[in-house]
Design goal:
The protein has 308 residues and is of the alpha/beta class. Helices cover 38% and strands 19% of the residues. It has a single domain, classed as Inosine-uridine Nucleoside N-ribohydrolase, Chain A (Alpha-Beta Complex). Bound molecules: beta-D-ribofuranose (BDR) and calcium ion. The site of beta-D-ribofuranose has 15 residues, from helix 1, helix 6 and helix 11.
């Protein structure tokens, strides 16, 4: 059997971030979660750093360090995502587990150190890209040191916080632009992919009621998430979990090279992600197709099979 692949998750939990972390913790044979870095986004940094620890401690994985990173975007004033994720960022759902502290050091330095000591590190970034952008400014050679970067962000056809912009890119468009211009060549999981896989209200209730693994807690968080996005919607998009799925289940995704750019102008286009799939100079690879049913089946299966 191949050894588990080292992965650092940069996140802003956030309910779908929490599901992404649980999914990563659920697959120790495939992924070795070497660290979690947190960033301001769905909530202020103190909230996202606390929630990453709550999930880690609930998962019983105290050995995984959680680092706090950047408390605000590079340029813009922060506009947090509390309406969707609740005031505590995890839908007010109680999670058991002994609480452990934050690791010493800054999240940006943790990314640099982990990339320096592991030649095969994958970084999965599922929040605003501030930490990654600052790390790349601090050490431009980082782009050549990370084996693979998978980013949940951007919406090519449309946004979700404005008609043009997706939340993670809108929160810090200058950071997104810096990351795309760095030579990192990330794999992008945009809204165009994540919005093809809504988890329905009935499947959320199945998770909440099944009593298996971490499904009850995941179901409780997703029920609040669904209420906050609107019960008239057919379900919820578990955006960030798809970014974890891409390296683990490559058979489910079709990926194409593209030249991506981000609008950083003030006004209604701010945060728009533009993709040129015909470019001769691609700077990213974009998930353009997937098997939504298999993704949701496998994700729910992992949450149910989780052993704490
Ligand atoms: C992204 O925005 C956040 O609210 C989610 O956690 C996800 O990372 C989706 O646009
Ligand atoms: Ca997120």
């Amino acid at each position: 059997m191949n050894r588990p692949h080292p992965v650092l998750i940069d996140c802003d939990p956030g309910i779908d971030d929490a599901i992404a972390l649980l999914m990563a913790f659920a697959m120790p044979d495939a992924l070795e979660l070497t660290g979690i870095t947190t960033v301001a986004g769905n909530g202020p940094l103190a909230v996202t750093a606390r929630n990453a620890r709550r999930i880690r401690d609930f998962a019983g994985r105290h050995e995984v360090p959680v680092f706090a990173g950047c408390p605000r975007p590079l340029v813009a004033a922060p506009v947090f995502g509390e309406r969707i994720h609740g005031a505590d960022g995890l839908g007010g759902v109680g999670l058991s587990g002994t609480s452990g502290g934050l690791a010493a050091g800054h999240g940006v330095d943790a990314i640099l150190e982990q990339a320096a000591t592991r030649s095969d590190l994958t970084v999965i970034a599922v929040g605003p890209l501030t930490n990654l952008a600052v790390a790349l400014v601090k050490r431009p050679d980082l782009a050549g040191r990370i084996a693979r970067t998978v980013i949940m962000g951007g919406g090519i056809a449309q946004g979700n916080v404005t008609p043009a912009a997706e939340f993670n890119v809108f929160f810090d468009p200058e950071a997104a632009r810096a990351v795309l211009d760095s030579g990192l060549r990330p794999t992008l999981v945009p809204l165009d992919a994540t919005q093809r896989a809504p988890l329905s209200a009935s499947r959320i209730e199945e998770l909440a009621a099944c009593g298996e693994g971490v499904a009850p807690e995941a179901g409780a968080m997703l029920r609040v998430y669904h209420g906050n996005v609107g019960r008239d919607r057919p379900g919820v998009f578990i955006h960030d979990a798809m970014a974890v799925a891409v390296p683990v289940w490559p058979d489910l995704f079709e990926i194409r090279p593209a030249r991506l750019s981000v609008c950083t102008d003030a006004g209604p286009e701010r945060g728009r992600t533009i993709a040129d799939f015909a470019s001769a100079e691609p700077n990213a690879d974009v998930v353009v197709d997937l098997d939504p049913a298999a993704f949701l089946d496998r994700l729910c299966g992992e949450l149910r099979a989780f052993r704490r």
